Amino acid sequence: MSCHLRLAPHTQTTIKGKQMTNPTAERIKGIVASSDVVLFMKGVPDAPECGFSAGVVQILNGLKVPFKGVNVLSDPQLREGIKSFSDWPTIPQLYVKGEFLGGADIVRAMFQEGELTVLLADKGIVTAAT
Amino acid sequence: MAMAGPDIERLIREAFPDAQVIVVDLAGDGDHFGARVTSAAFVGKSRIQQHQMVYNALQGQMGGALHALALETAVPK
What we know:
Chain A has 130 residues and is α+β, with helices and mostly antiparallel strands. Chain A has helices at 23-33, 51-62, 76-86, 104-112, 115-122; strands at 37-41, 43-44, 47-48, 68-71, 93-96, 99-102. With 77 residues, chain B is of the alpha+beta class. Chain B has one domain: 2-Layer Sandwich (GMP Synthetase, Chain A, domain 3). Chain B has helices spanning 5-15, 47-57; strands spanning 20-25, 32-38, 68-74. Chain B has a 3-stranded mixed β-sheet with strand order 1-2-3. The longest helix of chain B has 11 residues, at 5-15.
């Protein structure tokens, strides 16, 4: 899926995670804390605009995990800010109980190896597997 | 500007001299790649750390010139 074709050119951010004491970082902290499972993604859960985001949505839906989808495409500050915040260069990014879990590849690998359901259960999140 | 498969492979090999690196052009369009990197450097690291090490090897291209790289990391068996 050539999701990037519809996007504005990438801009390099010079802000580094830990020094980011700006309103965006504060906002991201608030968003991450606002729900047990938060997915920063391109598009919305019902209509992802990138194959990588769609893949994570599919896994979460498959496990019947309630999550909050945050569309970074509708918010350029969030889109760049989350990369610095997590020190992670790509979207999607999954947070569980405030902890950064990883991007699309890691979530898929954890799901395939059964680690994801274990981690969610450990964190007290009810899934289709529990 | 997209990044070519051989460039991806070279940067990873430079950072992980011991690594087994497989780079695949997933869509055949020179723009969507998959990479599997097996290196002893990953021993004792979390998945997030392993992926960050590879992203660092790509010198900031990830998320920029290199948009689509499905990454899989492993330690040698």
